[in-house]
Design goal:
Radius of gyration: 26 Å
Number of domains: 1
Keywords: Membrane, Transmembrane, Transmembrane helix
Distance between the termini: 86 Å
Oligomer: single chain
Number of helices: 2
Structural class: mainly alpha
């Protein structure tokens, strides 16, 4: 019984560790490629202001 538990720990431990590391690497990679929210919000705000100005100039 005791040997079976150690076999599971020795085989399962490195597999579990590898899965956790893979998950962390993939999660970090996707978050690193995303721009910060303040940059995105500022760009969206500027685009909306530009579109509003274009609408006002075209509608007059």
């Amino acid at each position: 019984m005791r040997g079976e538990i150690w076999s599971i720990v020795i085989i399962g431990g490195p597999i579990l560790l590898a899965l956790v590391l893979l998950y962390a690497l993939l999660r970090n990679r996707t978050q690193r490629n995303q721009p910060p929210m303040d940059v995105t919000e500022r760009g969206t705000r500027e685009l909306r202001e530009q579109l509003d100005r274009d609408d006002k100039q075209g509608g007059s």
